[in-house]
Amino acid sequence: MVLGAHGSRQGQHFKYTRSVHPNSTAEFTDPEPFPSGYTYPALLCDRNDKLHLVARAHGIPYKLVYLSREPGQPWGAQRDLIVPYTEGAAFYAIWYHKLNMDRRGRLFLNYWYYGLIGCEEQAAARRAKWPDDKFRALPEGGWEYEEMHPHDPAMLMSDDGGETWRLALTEDFVAGVASQTP
């Protein structure tokens, strides 16, 4: 279970706790802090009790990152999954993501990205691609959405417990279904 609000602001951290007894909510471990500097956590525990964490790293360029933790071990090193393009602008970015695991133990990360502030070239490209979206110029330069809409969702997958990640393909889903048929 993840406890906390928005993450590492003003020394606050997300905390992690788990049930002491499987399939019971009667007793939990003492909450322990996650590594600092992350927001929007997606946490998953696999069948071997390994924790998988995908979160936004705090600070420009607001990357989407992956960390893992083996039972009884500290958190492993951060690995960048996606680093947004930020040339010419100071981006505030939000990631909307869900981390899931299929019956074969493969990890799937569905996400879409929202970059709040961009330069004129980026705003023009977005206007051309999504003409119904509304933008406004900022007094200090750059642009931001007046109305935000999700665009271009993507899905990454890992079939080796989070060691490597790649874009998921149709064949990955077909293989997952085919392996489950009686």
Topology record:
Layout: E1 2-3, E2 15-16, E3 32-33, E4 38-45, E5 51-57, E6 64-69, E7 79-82, E8 93-101, E9 107-115, E10 117-118, H1 120-129, E11 134-137, E12 143-147, E13 154-158, E14 166-167, H2 170-178
Antiparallel strand pairs: 1-2, 2-3, 4-5, 5-6, 6-7, 8-9, 9-13, 10-12, 11-12, 13-14
Give an overview of the whole structure.
- There is one protein chain.
- The protein has one domain (2-178).
- It contains 2 helices and 14 strands.
- The protein has helices at 120-129, 170-178, and strands at residues 2-3, 15-16, 32-33, 38-45, 51-57, 64-69, 79-82, 93-101, 107-115, 117-118, 134-137, 143-147, 154-158, 166-167.
- The strands form 4 sheets. It has a 4-stranded antiparallel beta sheet, with no helix packed on it. A 4-stranded antiparallel beta sheet has the order 8-9-13-14, with no helix packed on it.
- A hairpin with a 5-residue loop joins strand 8 and strand 9.
- The longest helix is centred in the last third of the chain and has 10 residues, at 120-129.
- It is globular, with a radius of gyration of 19 Å.
Key phrases:
182 residues; mainly beta; four-stranded antiparallel sheet; 10% helix; globular
Spans where pLDDT lies below 50 across 5 or more residues: none
Q: Please tell me how large the radius of gyration is.
A: 19 Å
Tally of contiguous helical segments: 2
Percent range for β-strand residues: 35-45%
Instruction: For the largest sheet, list the strands in their spatial order.
Output: 4-5-6-7
**Based on helices, strands and strand pairing, what is the structural class?**
mainly beta
List the helices and strands in order: EEEEEEEEEEHEEEEH
Principal-axes shape call: globular
Number of domains: 1
Helix content: 10-25%
Give the beta-strand count.
14
End-to-end gap: 34 Å
The biggest beta sheet is recorded as: 4 strands, antiparallel
Q: Residue-averaged pLDDT, rounded?
A: 83
